[in-house]
Amino acid sequence: KSADRRKREKYLLVFKGKRYTYGIGSETRNALHFLHNGNDVIVLTTCRHGKKWRDLKDDKCETDDALYDSHDYQQLMANATFCLVPRGRRLGSYRFLEALQFGCIPVVLANQWLLPFHELLDWTQCAVVADERLLLQTTETLRQISRQKIAEMRAKCLALYETYFSSVERIVLTSLLVIEQRLRPHLALQHFVWNLRAPPLAAVVTQSQLGVRDPRLNALLMAEEVNDRAFTAVVHVTTASDVTPNLQRLIGRALRGSRFAAEAVVVWPQSLALPAHLVETPFVRVLRSNASARFRLVDSTTLKTDCVLQLSPHSLLSAKEFDFGFSVWTAFPRRVVGFSSRDHFFDDQKRQF
To answer: Domains of the chain, with CATH numbers?
Structure first.
Protein backbone atom coordinates (compact mmCIF):
# COMPACT_ATOMS: atom_id res chain seq x y z
CA LYS A 1 0.00 0.00 0.00
CA SER A 2 2.74 2.47 0.92
CA ALA A 3 4.70 1.50 -2.21
CA ASP A 4 1.65 2.20 -4.37
CA ARG A 5 1.18 5.54 -2.61
CA ARG A 6 4.80 6.54 -3.27
CA LYS A 7 4.39 5.50 -6.90
CA ARG A 8 1.23 7.55 -7.26
CA GLU A 9 2.76 10.55 -5.56
CA LYS A 10 5.60 10.66 -8.08
CA TYR A 11 3.50 13.20 -10.00
CA LEU A 12 0.79 15.46 -8.69
CA LEU A 13 -0.55 16.44 -12.12
CA VAL A 14 0.28 15.30 -15.66
CA PHE A 15 -0.68 16.07 -19.25
CA LYS A 16 0.70 14.92 -22.58
CA GLY A 17 -1.04 16.07 -25.74
CA LYS A 18 -1.34 18.51 -28.62
CA ARG A 19 -0.67 22.24 -28.36
CA TYR A 20 -2.78 24.26 -30.75
CA THR A 21 -0.98 27.35 -32.04
CA TYR A 22 -4.20 28.74 -33.51
CA GLY A 23 -7.99 28.24 -33.55
CA ILE A 24 -10.36 26.49 -31.13
CA GLY A 25 -8.69 25.33 -27.93
CA SER A 26 -5.47 27.26 -28.57
CA GLU A 27 -6.06 29.82 -25.82
CA THR A 28 -6.08 27.17 -23.09
CA ARG A 29 -3.57 24.74 -24.59
CA ASN A 30 -1.02 27.46 -25.31
CA ALA A 31 -0.99 28.43 -21.64
CA LEU A 32 -0.59 24.93 -20.16
CA HIS A 33 3.23 25.16 -20.13
CA PHE A 34 2.98 27.64 -17.25
CA LEU A 35 1.92 24.74 -14.99
CA HIS A 36 4.95 22.58 -15.82
CA ASN A 37 7.60 22.57 -13.09
CA GLY A 38 9.61 19.52 -14.22
CA ASN A 39 9.17 17.95 -10.80
CA ASP A 40 5.72 16.81 -9.70
CA VAL A 41 3.77 18.65 -12.40
CA ILE A 42 4.56 17.37 -15.90
CA VAL A 43 2.87 19.14 -18.82
CA LEU A 44 4.09 18.06 -22.26
CA THR A 45 2.76 19.45 -25.52
CA THR A 46 3.65 19.02 -29.17
CA CYS A 47 3.04 21.08 -32.30
CA ARG A 48 3.42 18.03 -34.56
CA HIS A 49 -0.16 17.50 -35.68
CA GLY A 50 -2.14 18.46 -38.74
CA LYS A 51 -0.83 18.85 -42.28
CA LYS A 52 0.43 22.42 -41.87
CA TRP A 53 2.10 22.22 -38.50
CA ARG A 54 5.51 23.19 -39.90
CA ASP A 55 4.05 26.37 -41.40
CA LEU A 56 2.27 27.28 -38.18
CA LYS A 57 4.92 26.35 -35.58
CA ASP A 58 6.31 29.03 -33.28
CA ASP A 59 9.62 29.48 -31.45
CA LYS A 60 8.54 27.23 -28.60
CA CYS A 61 7.63 24.19 -30.69
CA GLU A 62 11.12 22.69 -31.04
CA THR A 63 11.77 22.73 -27.29
CA ASP A 64 8.27 21.40 -26.55
CA ASP A 65 8.61 18.54 -29.03
CA ALA A 66 11.92 17.39 -27.55
CA LEU A 67 10.46 17.30 -24.03
CA TYR A 68 7.29 15.66 -25.32
CA ASP A 69 9.23 12.64 -26.57
CA SER A 70 10.98 12.12 -23.23
CA HIS A 71 7.97 10.66 -21.38
CA ASP A 72 5.60 7.76 -22.03
CA TYR A 73 1.90 8.72 -22.01
CA GLN A 74 0.60 5.67 -20.14
CA GLN A 75 3.43 5.69 -17.62
CA LEU A 76 2.64 9.30 -16.78
CA MET A 77 -1.02 8.54 -16.13
CA ALA A 78 -0.23 5.41 -14.14
CA ASN A 79 2.13 7.36 -11.86
CA ALA A 80 -0.01 10.46 -11.33
CA THR A 81 -2.64 11.47 -8.81
CA PHE A 82 -4.39 13.94 -11.14
CA CYS A 83 -4.64 13.96 -14.95
CA LEU A 84 -5.32 17.20 -16.78
CA VAL A 85 -8.19 17.14 -19.30
CA PRO A 86 -8.11 20.50 -21.10
CA ARG A 87 -10.41 21.73 -23.84
CA GLY A 88 -9.53 20.43 -27.30
CA ARG A 89 -11.05 20.84 -30.73
CA ARG A 90 -13.97 18.48 -30.18
CA LEU A 91 -16.98 18.36 -27.89
CA GLY A 92 -15.47 15.56 -25.82
CA SER A 93 -12.12 14.02 -24.86
CA TYR A 94 -10.96 10.41 -24.89
CA ARG A 95 -8.46 11.52 -22.25
CA PHE A 96 -11.26 11.81 -19.68
CA LEU A 97 -12.14 8.09 -19.89
CA GLU A 98 -8.47 7.10 -19.99
CA ALA A 99 -7.91 8.97 -16.74
CA LEU A 100 -10.84 7.13 -15.12
CA GLN A 101 -9.47 3.81 -16.33
CA PHE A 102 -6.07 4.49 -14.75
CA GLY A 103 -7.65 5.64 -11.48
CA CYS A 104 -6.15 9.06 -12.17
CA ILE A 105 -8.49 11.83 -10.99
CA PRO A 106 -9.47 13.97 -14.03
CA VAL A 107 -8.99 17.73 -13.76
CA VAL A 108 -11.30 19.22 -16.39
CA LEU A 109 -10.24 22.55 -17.89
CA ALA A 110 -13.15 23.30 -20.22
CA ASN A 111 -15.71 25.83 -19.04
CA GLN A 112 -19.31 24.91 -19.85
CA TRP A 113 -18.46 21.33 -20.77
CA LEU A 114 -21.06 18.75 -19.73
CA LEU A 115 -19.50 15.57 -18.38
CA PRO A 116 -20.79 12.12 -19.51
CA PHE A 117 -24.24 11.24 -18.18
CA HIS A 118 -24.06 14.35 -16.01
CA GLU A 119 -27.76 14.27 -15.15
CA LEU A 120 -27.32 10.92 -13.36
CA LEU A 121 -23.69 10.65 -12.28
CA ASP A 122 -22.32 12.88 -9.52
CA TRP A 123 -18.94 13.83 -10.95
CA THR A 124 -18.03 15.91 -7.89
CA GLN A 125 -17.18 12.57 -6.24
CA CYS A 126 -14.35 11.72 -8.64
CA ALA A 127 -13.40 14.70 -10.82
CA VAL A 128 -12.12 18.25 -10.33
CA VAL A 129 -13.70 20.88 -12.58
CA ALA A 130 -11.33 23.85 -12.77
CA ASP A 131 -11.89 27.28 -14.32
CA GLU A 132 -9.93 27.95 -17.51
CA ARG A 133 -9.70 31.62 -16.51
CA LEU A 134 -7.92 30.64 -13.28
CA LEU A 135 -5.46 28.21 -14.85
CA LEU A 136 -2.45 29.22 -12.74
CA GLN A 137 -4.34 28.46 -9.52
CA THR A 138 -5.03 24.86 -10.53
CA THR A 139 -2.02 23.14 -8.93
CA GLU A 140 -2.44 25.02 -5.64
CA THR A 141 -6.09 23.95 -5.51
CA LEU A 142 -5.09 20.32 -6.03
CA ARG A 143 -2.47 20.46 -3.26
CA GLN A 144 -5.21 21.38 -0.79
CA ILE A 145 -7.11 18.11 -1.33
CA SER A 146 -6.52 15.64 1.51
CA ARG A 147 -5.11 12.14 1.03
CA GLN A 148 -8.34 10.65 2.34
CA LYS A 149 -10.38 12.58 -0.22
CA ILE A 150 -7.95 11.58 -2.99
CA ALA A 151 -8.31 7.89 -2.08
CA GLU A 152 -12.11 8.18 -2.13
CA MET A 153 -12.13 9.99 -5.47
CA ARG A 154 -9.76 7.50 -7.08
CA ALA A 155 -11.88 4.55 -5.94
CA LYS A 156 -14.96 6.28 -7.33
CA CYS A 157 -13.23 6.88 -10.68
CA LEU A 158 -12.48 3.18 -11.03
CA ALA A 159 -15.98 2.16 -9.94
CA LEU A 160 -17.73 4.48 -12.41
CA TYR A 161 -15.41 3.45 -15.23
CA GLU A 162 -15.92 -0.28 -14.64
CA THR A 163 -19.70 0.13 -14.40
CA TYR A 164 -20.58 2.57 -17.16
CA PHE A 165 -17.60 3.08 -19.50
CA SER A 166 -15.48 -0.09 -19.62
CA SER A 167 -16.93 -1.30 -22.93
CA VAL A 168 -18.85 0.05 -25.92
CA GLU A 169 -21.78 -2.15 -24.88
CA ARG A 170 -21.94 -0.55 -21.45
CA ILE A 171 -21.71 2.98 -22.82
CA VAL A 172 -24.54 2.28 -25.29
CA LEU A 173 -26.68 0.60 -22.64
CA THR A 174 -26.18 3.48 -20.21
CA SER A 175 -27.09 5.93 -22.98
CA LEU A 176 -30.34 4.04 -23.56
CA LEU A 177 -31.11 4.11 -19.85
CA VAL A 178 -30.55 7.87 -19.77
CA ILE A 179 -32.93 8.35 -22.70
CA GLU A 180 -35.48 6.11 -21.01
CA GLN A 181 -35.34 8.17 -17.83
CA ARG A 182 -35.88 11.36 -19.83
CA LEU A 183 -38.93 9.90 -21.55
CA ARG A 184 -40.40 8.34 -18.40
CA PRO A 185 -39.31 10.52 -15.49
CA HIS A 186 -42.05 9.04 -13.29
CA LEU A 187 -40.26 5.66 -13.56
CA ALA A 188 -36.76 7.07 -13.03
CA LEU A 189 -34.50 5.44 -10.47
CA GLN A 190 -33.39 7.48 -7.51
CA HIS A 191 -30.18 9.41 -8.08
CA PHE A 192 -28.20 7.58 -5.39
CA VAL A 193 -28.63 4.21 -7.17
CA TRP A 194 -26.45 5.43 -10.04
CA ASN A 195 -23.81 6.73 -7.64
CA LEU A 196 -23.30 3.85 -5.25
CA ARG A 197 -19.72 3.11 -4.23
CA ALA A 198 -19.78 0.08 -6.55
CA PRO A 199 -22.91 0.69 -8.65
CA PRO A 200 -24.33 -2.53 -10.14
CA LEU A 201 -25.46 -1.86 -13.70
CA ALA A 202 -27.47 -5.09 -13.68
CA ALA A 203 -29.60 -3.78 -10.80
CA VAL A 204 -30.25 -0.54 -12.68
CA VAL A 205 -31.27 -2.39 -15.84
CA THR A 206 -33.46 -4.87 -13.96
CA GLN A 207 -35.55 -2.02 -12.54
CA SER A 208 -35.85 -0.25 -15.90
CA GLN A 209 -38.28 -0.81 -18.73
CA LEU A 210 -35.37 -2.13 -20.83
CA GLY A 211 -34.97 -4.97 -18.36
CA VAL A 212 -38.69 -5.67 -18.19
CA ARG A 213 -38.90 -5.96 -21.97
CA ASP A 214 -35.81 -8.12 -22.40
CA PRO A 215 -35.05 -10.40 -19.43
CA ARG A 216 -32.12 -11.88 -21.38
CA LEU A 217 -30.31 -8.57 -20.90
CA ASN A 218 -30.70 -8.91 -17.12
CA ALA A 219 -29.33 -12.44 -17.18
CA LEU A 220 -26.26 -11.46 -19.22
CA LEU A 221 -25.43 -8.51 -16.97
CA MET A 222 -26.05 -10.43 -13.77
CA ALA A 223 -23.73 -13.22 -14.93
CA GLU A 224 -21.08 -10.63 -15.82
CA GLU A 225 -21.38 -8.77 -12.52
CA VAL A 226 -21.45 -11.85 -10.32
CA ASN A 227 -18.09 -12.63 -11.88
CA ASP A 228 -16.86 -9.21 -10.73
CA ARG A 229 -18.47 -9.30 -7.29
CA ALA A 230 -17.24 -12.61 -5.89
CA PHE A 231 -13.90 -14.33 -5.40
CA THR A 232 -12.53 -17.85 -5.67
CA ALA A 233 -10.28 -19.11 -2.88
CA VAL A 234 -7.51 -21.50 -3.94
CA VAL A 235 -5.89 -23.52 -1.14
CA HIS A 236 -2.71 -25.43 -2.03
CA VAL A 237 -2.05 -28.49 0.14
CA THR A 238 1.42 -29.95 -0.46
CA THR A 239 2.33 -32.22 2.48
CA ALA A 240 0.71 -34.05 5.39
CA SER A 241 1.79 -31.19 7.70
CA ASP A 242 -0.77 -28.99 5.93
CA VAL A 243 -3.65 -31.23 7.03
CA THR A 244 -4.57 -29.70 10.39
CA PRO A 245 -7.81 -28.80 12.20
CA ASN A 246 -7.26 -25.26 10.90
CA LEU A 247 -7.79 -26.46 7.32
CA GLN A 248 -11.27 -27.66 8.24
CA ARG A 249 -11.97 -24.33 9.98
CA LEU A 250 -10.62 -22.34 7.03
CA ILE A 251 -12.82 -24.04 4.43
CA GLY A 252 -15.82 -25.01 6.51
CA ARG A 253 -16.30 -21.81 8.51
CA ALA A 254 -14.14 -18.90 7.38
CA LEU A 255 -14.54 -19.21 3.60
CA ARG A 256 -18.08 -20.58 3.70
CA GLY A 257 -19.03 -17.74 6.03
CA SER A 258 -17.77 -15.05 3.64
CA ARG A 259 -20.48 -13.11 1.79
CA PHE A 260 -18.36 -12.95 -1.37
CA ALA A 261 -16.72 -16.37 -1.64
CA ALA A 262 -18.08 -18.11 -4.75
CA GLU A 263 -16.02 -21.28 -4.43
CA ALA A 264 -13.17 -22.90 -2.53
CA VAL A 265 -10.78 -24.82 -4.78
CA VAL A 266 -8.48 -27.18 -2.90
CA VAL A 267 -5.42 -28.43 -4.79
CA TRP A 268 -4.58 -31.78 -3.17
CA PRO A 269 -1.57 -34.05 -3.97
CA GLN A 270 -2.27 -37.49 -5.44
CA SER A 271 0.04 -39.07 -2.88
CA LEU A 272 -2.01 -37.83 0.08
CA ALA A 273 -5.31 -39.38 1.19
CA LEU A 274 -8.28 -37.04 1.43
CA PRO A 275 -9.61 -36.50 4.98
CA ALA A 276 -13.22 -37.43 5.71
CA HIS A 277 -14.29 -33.80 6.22
CA LEU A 278 -13.12 -32.72 2.77
CA VAL A 279 -16.08 -33.64 0.61
CA GLU A 280 -16.83 -32.02 -2.75
CA THR A 281 -19.94 -29.82 -2.70
CA PRO A 282 -21.20 -27.00 -4.92
CA PHE A 283 -18.96 -24.72 -2.81
CA VAL A 284 -15.87 -26.96 -2.39
CA ARG A 285 -13.97 -28.38 -5.38
CA VAL A 286 -10.95 -30.68 -5.05
CA LEU A 287 -8.30 -30.87 -7.78
CA ARG A 288 -5.90 -33.80 -7.43
CA SER A 289 -2.36 -33.09 -8.61
CA ASN A 290 1.20 -34.30 -8.68
CA ALA A 291 4.10 -32.13 -7.58
CA SER A 292 4.95 -30.85 -11.06
CA ALA A 293 1.41 -30.01 -12.18
CA ARG A 294 -0.22 -28.52 -9.11
CA PHE A 295 0.19 -24.88 -10.25
CA ARG A 296 -1.02 -25.62 -13.79
CA LEU A 297 -4.37 -27.04 -12.64
CA VAL A 298 -5.79 -23.62 -11.75
CA ASP A 299 -6.21 -21.12 -14.58
CA SER A 300 -8.87 -18.90 -16.15
CA THR A 301 -10.62 -21.92 -17.69
CA THR A 302 -11.19 -23.62 -14.33
CA LEU A 303 -12.20 -20.55 -12.28
CA LYS A 304 -15.58 -18.84 -12.11
CA THR A 305 -14.44 -15.38 -11.02
CA ASP A 306 -11.90 -12.73 -11.98
CA CYS A 307 -10.79 -12.33 -8.36
CA VAL A 308 -8.69 -15.21 -7.01
CA LEU A 309 -7.39 -15.46 -3.45
CA GLN A 310 -4.41 -17.76 -2.94
CA LEU A 311 -4.38 -19.19 0.58
CA SER A 312 -2.05 -21.20 2.74
CA PRO A 313 -3.73 -24.12 4.56
CA HIS A 314 -2.40 -22.54 7.76
CA SER A 315 -4.09 -19.17 7.20
CA LEU A 316 -5.89 -17.86 10.31
CA LEU A 317 -8.03 -15.31 8.47
CA SER A 318 -11.73 -15.03 9.30
CA ALA A 319 -14.81 -14.53 7.14
CA LYS A 320 -14.91 -10.83 8.04
CA GLU A 321 -11.29 -10.41 7.00
CA PHE A 322 -11.98 -12.09 3.66
CA ASP A 323 -14.90 -9.72 3.09
CA PHE A 324 -12.72 -6.74 4.00
CA GLY A 325 -9.96 -7.82 1.60
CA PHE A 326 -12.44 -8.36 -1.22
CA SER A 327 -14.00 -4.91 -0.67
CA VAL A 328 -10.52 -3.40 -1.14
CA TRP A 329 -9.99 -5.41 -4.33
CA THR A 330 -13.32 -4.25 -5.83
CA ALA A 331 -12.09 -0.64 -5.53
CA PHE A 332 -8.80 -1.51 -7.29
CA PRO A 333 -9.53 -4.60 -9.45
CA ARG A 334 -6.37 -4.24 -11.56
CA ARG A 335 -4.05 -4.50 -8.59
CA VAL A 336 -2.79 -7.28 -6.37
CA VAL A 337 -4.42 -7.06 -2.94
CA GLY A 338 -3.34 -9.21 -0.02
CA PHE A 339 -2.77 -9.53 3.70
CA SER A 340 0.57 -9.09 5.41
CA SER A 341 1.16 -11.32 8.39
CA ARG A 342 0.24 -9.63 11.73
CA ASP A 343 -0.26 -6.34 9.90
CA HIS A 344 -4.01 -6.01 10.41
CA PHE A 345 -6.51 -6.61 13.18
CA PHE A 346 -10.17 -5.97 13.95
CA ASP A 347 -10.82 -3.19 16.47
CA ASP A 348 -13.89 -4.22 18.47
CA GLN A 349 -14.51 -0.67 19.73
CA LYS A 350 -14.32 1.02 16.32
CA ARG A 351 -15.89 -2.00 14.59
CA GLN A 352 -13.44 -1.83 11.73
CA PHE A 353 -10.06 -3.20 10.58
So the answer is: 2-161 (3.40.50.2000), 168-228 (no CATH), 231-331 (3.90.550.10)
